[in-house]
Amino acid sequence: MKFQHALITGISGELGFNLASFLITNNLAGMLSVCARGDKNDEPLLSLAQKYKVKVNIEHFDIRDDDALSAFITRSYNKTPLDLVIANAGVSLSSDDLGLEDFFEINRGFDINAKATIKTLYKSLSLYRKNVKDSCTKEHGRDIGKVVGNDQGKDRNKDIPTLNLVAISSLASLLPMRSSPIYSSSKVAINMYVNALRNSLSDEEAKSVKITLIIPGFIKTAMSDRFIGNKAMMISASDAAKKIIGAVVKNKRQLAFPKILYLGTLLGAFLPNFIIKPFVKMFDFGVVADKDRVKFLEDGIKALDDSTYSQESLKDSKKSFRGTSEDRENGSENRSNEGGGK
Length: 342
Fold this sequence. Notes:
Largest sheet: 7 strands, parallel
Distance between the termini: 29 Å
CATH class: Alpha Beta
Number of domains: 1
């Protein structure tokens, strides 16, 4: 299988970069449209594309900007219709000095992990449906009701294009991770949306629209480097990319890895909490603040608002997540739209 045009979000992270690299080096995509907030992977990706003669379009914006995201996907689709879309952008979250994820983390956790992923899938599918309807209008006059949105597509065009939608979730979505309730919750939202969206497809549409849910454990990235705790069975970003693209090529509905941890989390869903709680505790972790989190804390101290934070609270939070100099160095490389991790 070779995709004519693949779109990937969050390529400033190691997983996003390796997904794009795998498609390029294995001759699996004729064209790539990718986006990121930062530009740290632009040069190596363009170098690969030149070597393998693959056209790559890179755009930079904050994935939380609805207008920018919508325009990026629309421009990409208008160049050549997309047949592979990987919603990869994601962010890990830190707690405040009270051990809670505050408003800042709640907002960006859902904005980036859940909303941006859902919006990427929605916009891609809506453009696909419009393209199919327009094509069938030209081919079959006004008989477009049989194309999408119902189960009566007996007369639809046999040359309907395909679309592969891929969402990156996490094993953390399958267990109540007490170290990061918001991260877990934001990934749960992805799971529910993907399964509901898949069920909303008509029988005929489901033949050409394939949706794959990816549920990974820890992946070796700058994002996972900021985790302080047990990173069991962590795999490289290149290995994860290979698994993910392999699942898409095989039209798998879902891929979860590593299998042992996945089976453990499934079992946990059926066990009482007094048994599960010690198991979950084994995976407790902290997260060194990333660049955006540090800026938020520093801005809060500079523009102190006593109705929201006390000065001592903000200072303590800043100290709590400053970490070692090595931790800070890793954290400064993180981008808000970096994908992957647990």
